[in-house]
Design a protein that fits this description.
Elements: H1 11-33, H2 42-53, H3 63-81, H4 84-92, H5 120-132, H6 137-167, H7 173-194, H8 206-220, H9 226-237, H10 242-263, H11 268-275, H12 288-300
Length: 301
């Protein structure tokens, strides 16, 4: 008697296995196509932010836009990913753990632009540090919070100053709000980009992050931002892996924000930026049919 190694499944079982296999393969390709990895490169952040604002990427063809890349590099590298303050903590507080390692550096300054500079991961580290070296927890928590608030305030002030200088905005009034839009969106889009990675420790809560992005979109035009905000809220409510949700949210921002910027306040902000010599990509307003199709797609995704 021969033994047939082929297993004969019931038709219903075959259908289940086929669907399960396809879902696993689809998830794999989605993860790969959305660039989920251990780290998001500086150029990756630059491209994300340039696309969200709708600027042309090529700095050689559009020299003025090269200044935007430098500004993004300053925010992403010097204000968010820079590890000098991590090192300073180890010098100021004896035996404090080094958080500059790639798997730990996001514990600091990867909160949203206008969020409280604190998170549960860092608080846990401070408490463990105090317990290890028999230090007063309450007083040390106050000290660390004070140091982080001071440093975050310094960084935000520097980001605002550079943003106003780059785009020629005045300090105060409406133009100060415009500068805040560019500064906060650049900062927060960087954090959203980090959500497509595998190491998420220290990142600002995704819902809270998107709430702050929505706030800035409403600030420059509450009417023109409505469609994008609807799509954002639909994605936030679904149960995809958080990296997939982040990638979809980034797609929504890249699709809607350039047109939002173009139409906000009757084009006033868009024209102000263009008059400074910066170049935007050609943006066509989608038809009602295209908008409807996109809305339906977001509902079933």
């Amino acid at each position: 008697m021969t033994i047939n190694s082929r297993i004969n499944y019931h038709p219903i079982e075959q259908t289940y296995l086929s669907i399960k296999t396809r879902l696993i393969i689809m998830l794999f390709f989605i993860l790969c196509s959305n660039g989920i990895s251990y780290a998001h490169s500086l150029e990756g952040h630059q491209r994300d932010i340039m696309e969200v604002f709708g600027f042309e990427w090529d700095g050689r063809s559009f020299p003025k836009n090269a200044q935007i890349k430098d500004w993004i590099r300053f925010i992403s590298y010097d204000m968010i990913d820079d590890k000098s303050f991590h090192t300073k903590l180890t010098q100021t507080h004896r035996n404090f753990p080094d958080l500059s390692h790639p798997t730990k550096h996001r514990i600091l300054f990867h909160w949203a632009y206008d969020a409280e500079p604190w998170n549960k991961e860092f608080e846990k580290i401070v408490i463990e540090y105090c317990d290890t070296y028999d230090l007063n927890v309450e007083s040390n928590l106050r000290i660390f919070k004070s140091e982080l608030k001071s440093e975050q305030s310094r960084r935000n002030s520097e980001i605002n100053r550079r943003t106003e200088t780059l785009f020629g905005f005045f300090s105060g009034g409406t133009e100060s709000d415009w500068a805040r839009y560019f500064a906060s969106m650049a900062y927060n889009v960087h954090i959203l980009g980090d959500y497509t990675n595998t190491c998420l420790d220290g990142l600002n809560d995704l819902n809270d992050l998107m709430g702050k992005i929505i706030k800035q979109m409403r600030n420059i035009d509450p009417q023109e931002s409505k469609t994008a905000i609807k799509e954002i809220n639909i994605i936030l409510r679904n149960h995809d892996p958080i990296q997939i949700r982040a990638s979809k949210l980034m797609d929504v921002l890249k699709y809607h924000c350039p047109l939002l910027l173009k139409k906000a306040k009757g084009g006033m902000l868009y024209n102000r930026i263009k008059n400074q010599g910066f170049v935007f990509k050609e943006i066509e307003e989608p038809s009602l049919l295209e908008r409807f199709k996109r809305y339906v797609k977001s509902k079933v995704a």
